[in-house]
């Protein structure tokens, strides 16, 4: 029988315990983080065939390596920071891979890697290159860091409006409004990029 996931405040308590040197709490936090990354990767691959298990695994592994290098469990103050760091790590992995893939295409030698299928699926489903979306997200953050965070939790993390509101300490009406405004701003930015 598997153990149920910790509640929101339990994650923050475990983070505090990990920062005080409790390695068991640190491992448990990282397990929760990996579970979140798996869900987020699956969210990005919703229309992909189930046989493509390697792509989300490669993404998750690389994101975990980056999170360990950042020592996110020791530096995270709370659950909100932890999940934001996880979403950003996953996005950065995809951006870096998209950029290297595009550079390889220009160079003539293209070797398909596991994350290529994930990126191809994302770009086909959304009609935008991931690197251009990342640029639009950076512009959104300059305008409204909170709206970018809402996008990250809703879109990349796969959280519902209610889960995002609880994670960020906001009302659901605020999250709905930020989500709507952020999507409009991203659309406007991406439309300008295409022209």
Model description:
This protein is mainly α. It folds into two domains: 1-126, no CATH class; 128-195, Arc Repressor Mutant, subunit A, CATH 1.10.10.10. The chain is built from ten helices and no strands. The chain has helices spanning 8-19, 23-44, 54-69, 72-75, 79-107, 114-126, 130-143, 145-156, 161-168, 172-194. It is globular and about 50 Å long. The protein starts with 7 loop residues before the first helix and ends with a helix. 34% of the residues are buried. Residues 1-5 and 47-54 have low confidence and may be disordered. One of its GO terms (molecular function) is sigma factor activity. Residues 9-190 form the RNA polymerase sigma-70 ECF-like HTH domain. Pfam families: Sigma70_ECF. Keywords: Sigma factor, Transcription, Transcription regulation. InterPro entries: HTH_Sigma70_ECF-like, RNA_pol_sigma-70-like, RNA_pol_sigma-70_dom, RNA_pol_sigma70_ECF-like, RNA_pol_sigma_r3/r4-like, WH-like_DNA-bd_sf.
